[in-house]
Queue: 2 jobs
Job 1
Amino acid sequence: MLDVLIVGSGPAGLSAAIYAKRANLSLEIAEKIFMGTGQVAESGQVDNYLGLPGMSGYDMGEVFRGHAESFGIPFREAEICGFERTENGWRAALAGGGSIEARTVIYAAGAKHRHLGVRGEEELAGRGVSYCAVCDGAFYRGKTVAVAGGGNTALDDALYLSELCEKVFLIHRRREFRGAAATLEKLRERPNVEILTETVIEEIAGEKKVSCIRLANGRTIEVSGVFIAVGMQPETECVKDIAELDGAGYIVADETGRTSAEGFFAAGDVRTKQLRQVVTAVSDGANAAISAAEYLRKI
Ligand code: NAP
């Protein structure tokens, strides 16, 4: 039986693993995607992580993973589909069958992209509908695209795409943006960016691939791609019966990572917090590992 099972190989999980290893705990990281590094890999340039200015999100993820690997931390490609309390800790059920037993769990599974929920979105996913501008932007070089959303991701995506695409429509359902004013200012200065506020996308249409979007105001805009950046949804389906979640589905936990379930810790984007960034995920991982070590000492 492991001392700690870490779920997720993003910055929170990797940081937790390094701290747990240094605390002499036996551990394993379960990762849904083989050789994954989490959401950070989808970021363009990350300019706000201390000590690594201007590094691409992909490279940053690789550096983090390489650091964990250099400690000999074992990874297992496995999707966890549920948890069960046992006499000595936790049993994590694997989607492909089988289970992993551990005295404690550090759950750092992150969040996935929220969907817009409009006609055509699911059918045209991967055929013009994308949730990652950095991953797919290059396919739309010289073309017209739309970005949906009003947070930092949407603004960053629109800025990034404006460097590649002939024209970018940034479409937001409200008048006010949640994203940074500085980025919005840069977008307003770009001649190939058109910002449409108080505008709702009703349908994404196209035969085999996206050809246009239809707006609630009756307008149709011809586009080759639609980048959906309307926030994230925490990966908490498999923990909803064992740990308390907040109204938005995040695991209720403070910076120690302690949850309502004994010996079950949450770290990174998956927990309730003010700021979801690489730096806070790394910090969460460290805290959760120390909390797990303390818990194990006590029991
Ligand atoms: P977010 O801040 O939650 O913004 C989501 C946006 O999508 C909101 O503007 C929201 O509209 C809109 N939206 C949600 N559901 C929608 C729907 N069904 N139809 C239309 N619009 C919808 O999410 P995010 O931009 O992914 O950012 C997540 C976190 O990461 C934030 O804390 C953000 O600051 C951070 N982040 C930071 C950076 C950076 O520092 N450079 C980059 C990316 C992300 P309303 O405004 O009307 O609710």
Job 2
Amino acid sequence: MTKKTLLSVLLCMAFLTQGMAQVEKNERIPLKHGAHRTGRRTDADMQRWREYGLGQFIHWGVYAIPGGVWNGKTYTGASEWIRSWKEMPKDVYDNLYKQFNPTRFDAKRWAKQAKEMGARYMIFTTKHHDGFCMWPSKYTDYTVAHSPYKKDIVKEMVDAYTAEGIDVYLYFSIIDWSHPGYLSGGNINSPQVKRAFQSGGGVNPFETKEKEEKYEEFKAFTRNQLLELLDNYPAIKGLWFDGSWDVAWVRNAPWVDSLGIELREKHPGLIIGSRFRSDEYGNRHTDANGYLIGDYDQRYERSLPTNLAETKGFDWDCVMTIPENQWGYHRDWSWTYVKTPYELIEMAVKANSLDGNFVINFGPDGDGNIRKEEAETAKEIGKWMSKNGTAIYGTHHSVLEKQDWGYSTQKGDHIYLSVFNKPMNNIVRIKLPRNNHKDMIYVITKAEILSTKETVRINGKGQPGTYYRDKSGSSYYDLIIPKKLQKSTEPFVIVIELKEINKGSLEAYQQALT
Ligand code: FHN
């Protein structure tokens, strides 16, 4: 790389890492509880996070027992929310834990399956909105210890996944329908509520002093449980929060901020995403000045950015359901669209081509089985990842712009072209970027199929005029898909080597192509 090109890459990276929507220093809104940092985390733990590429999410709790069906009726909301359905009697739901006995649960088997799928991290629901704890918390009786199963499920999960080399993150809902002090103050995303917070006043969800005092008990309880999780499971890498749109939580932003500091002090390196807290004006994910709150952007679930600019240069991940919007186990998938393995793989590659991680959710049943459809999906993804994972792990966005045949990722001077839309003419046309240095040009010096190492023919190799440039100075190459792959319906990866050579030197160009 020339010095000039390197400089422009560095400038571009500096721009991206600072984020784009942020305001000039002298125009910044003074915040007491805004972001604690303006750029990305640069430590080894976060670097490791950045390189995961693919993860697994598991939603498991007592909601797996009804599995989205009650009294012969099917709940079409997310199955883990069934308690809030009018057809589901609350007291019945709150006693389901007395039947929770997943004798088929085998954390080692799940961890092995996740490893085979290619997951490098896993997020596990310790407690969802219903408040049921999958670990024997000493701060409530509504836990697995009081179910017929009795054993500590969180421990089994942390141990089994850690043993497989998969990093563990604990999901924790700050909404807890089981705690008497918990109060749902509404949703900060409602425009009216947001406006009230942004004008500095906020909304007070506590109608009485008594309710406010009770919420203080809930805060103490939440803090205790979080410290307990860090004490019990020191191997975990991070906490994954949910429910923080809740107005009561947002109203307590200063306290939440200090709690975050305490958790980080207790567990150095801890990774917490942007769903944990808001600034004092109720801004979530990014603060009033556009800086990311937390270590990475958790985004709106099940959504991928469309381009790099949209990521604002933040670290980010995307959590995705296999059916439309079912996180917990739903026994009936007949009415919902179910994503195919290739669809999920494409999303994973797209996420990585935009510098994000992709996390696929699983919802085991009440006995502890991962459903057949999910197991098959994991297997198919694993098959593809074992051949093509190099295009994902440890890569970042490439210097190529988005092109019709698929997505590209890069590591050093290797660019991975993941082809999802195979052209009918079996020619993958690659547009290389314009080189910012006027005497230099990018050339492809090598192209092969990642999984088989089969050489990919570069059309008209070595002849003048075999590549062409458009008016903007971008050059194009035609890569001919090898015969065997022409009939294949599987997405594949071509790895190319990209070099810079002196434009005037055709000789050098020809050599570069040999
Ligand atoms: O309400 C939850 C939902 O059940 C699920 O846990 C997802 C996962 O991202 N989070 C919440 C909705 O944002």
